[in-house]
Write a structure and sequence with these properties.
With 419 residues, this protein is α+β, with helices and mostly antiparallel strands. The protein has helices at residues 27-57, 84-87, 112-119, 161-164, 305-318, 337-343, 377-384, and strands spanning 123-133, 139-150, 156-160, 169-173, 179-188, 193-198, 207-208, 219-224, 233-248, 251-258, 270-272, 277-283, 300-304, 325-326, 329-334, 349-355, 365-369, 372-373, 392-399, 402-409, 411-412. It is globular. The termini are far apart.
């Protein structure tokens, strides 16, 4: 075995022994010595040059010999594969080191059963009673039913305005069977939302999700009180469409569409995603057929949670929804022959009954807003979308067969009941 540090390019030269000294030297001997010295010098120069050329062509650094594995030695084991939870650990930010600790256990998969059990405690049954006096002084009563969603631990509940509109008494039944009388806090007719409250503590409120993040095909669960008798019913489906403009009770509403089964009594209930978050407040007003007599199946609608959350916040804080524009007009929408006869007018359209602006008069028919033609209340509402408080609009009306145009500055709408 060679010494691993040995320089194999170096060749040693054996030194010559000096000749013995003599007392007497002959001339021939001197010549021989001189020739011999010249030969030795030449040989030494040749050898030195050869060595110099050889060493100069060698690498500057001598590599260490790599030991070879014995044929009988086992192959090294493959590197250990880390669990995916460790492999996918994000890099530390700002140079901070990740702390060592036990591996995070895998969370159990969330099932629809688990989600349904979680969300059903946040949905309530609502029973209503209406008492009126007949022509002969006799009291007459009527009942109704709907659903609601708990939005706070201390008893605030959101439902549809049409569920509690005009009723005398409201009773709320929780998922555990307890019943409480409810008081009306505030309503918003435009979005068909209302907030009521019961005197209870420790309730389980729904967790709001973002309806703006929904996609068509996402799973959905509807929870409510269909037919007013089947409280806590859970139905499943998908989000069928987003941003549907639907006309309900003369209002244009932008709603979510779902094929989760909803029926009368589901009104005011919750539409949840598969993570258990509230993504909509169900609106279920129509019966089982359309105006054309066709059977309706797999067609439900809900107020998006982002809209509901904004409206609820304003209702609780101010008693009304801020930022809506007001024309300062009391209007009537005349669209039928019977209405034409009743109001003694000849043309269908939107007529002014009262105006806070003296330039407009009773009986004026609105025909345009900023050159956009108007023929109905729905058309007027659509034309006013996009305008804000403080904007100016051009209102064109027909008065006595003549066209009159008025520039109006929009103010903020406030209900008469708002403080």
């Amino acid at each position: 075995m060679y010494d691993e540090y040995q320089d194999y390019n170096y060749v040693p030269v054996t030194p010559q022994a000096p000749p013995p000294r003599r007392r007497r030297r002959r001339a021939g001997g001197r010549v021989f010595v001189v020739v011999l010295c010249l030969l030795i010098a030449a040989a030494s120069g040749f050898a030195g040059g050869y060595l110099a050329n050889t060493i100069g062509s060698a690498p500057a650094a001598v590599e260490m010999p790599v030991p070879m594995l014995s044929p009988s030695a086992p192959e090294p084991p493959p590197p250990e594969v880390l669990p995916s939870a460790v492999v996918n650990t994000p890099e530390p930010e700002n140079g901070d080191e990740l702390l060592d600790g036990p591996e995070t256990p895998e969370l159990p998969a969330v099932t629809r059963t688990g989600v349904a059990d979680m969300i059903r405690h946040s949905v309530v049954e609502i029973k209503t009673e209406t008492i009126s006096t007949g022509g002969w002084g006799f009291a007459r009563g009527g009942t109704g039913a709907g659903s609601g969603v708990i939005i706070s631990k201390d008893g605030y509940i959101v439902t549809n305005n049409h569920v509690i509109s005009g009723v005398t008494n409201i009773t709320v039944r929780l998922s555990d069977g307890r019943e409480f009388p409810a008081e009306l806090i505030a309503i918003d007719e435009r979005t068909d939302l209302a907030v009521i409250r019961i005197s209870a503590e420790g309730l389980i409120p729904a967790v709001f999700g973002s309806s703006s993040e929904l996609m068509v095909g996402d799973g959905a669960l509807a929870v409510g009180n269909p037919l007013g008798e089947l409280g806590g019913t859970v139905t499943s489906g998908i989000i069928s469409a987003l941003d549907r403009d639907i006309v309900l009770d003369g209002q244009i509403m932008t709603l979510l569409q779902t094929d989760a089964a909803v029926n009368p009594g589901n009104s005011g209930g919750g539409l949840f995603n598969l993570g258990g978050e509230l993504i909509g407040v169900v609106v279920a007003k129509s019966g089982g057929s359309s105006s054309g007599g066709m059977t309706i199946e797999g067609l439900g609608f809900a107020i998006p949670s982002n809209t509901a959350q904004s409206v609820i916040s304003d209702l609780l804080e101010h008693g009304y929804v801020r930022g809506r524009v007001d024309l300062g007009l009391d209007l009537v929408d005349i669209q039928t022959a019977q209405a034409l006869r009743a109001y003694r007018v000849s043309d269908v359209g939107v007529y002014i009954l009262e105006s806070s602006d003296e330039r407009l008069m009773r009986g004026d028919r609105i025909i345009a807003v900023d050159d956009r033609g108007i023929s109905s209340q729905l058309g007027l509402d659509a034309a006013m979308r996009g305008y804000g408080v403080g904007d100016t609009v051009s209102l064109e009306v027909i008065r006595g067969g003549q066209s009159v145009t008025v520039e109006m500055r929009l103010t903020e709408w406030r209900p008469s009941s708002a403080a």
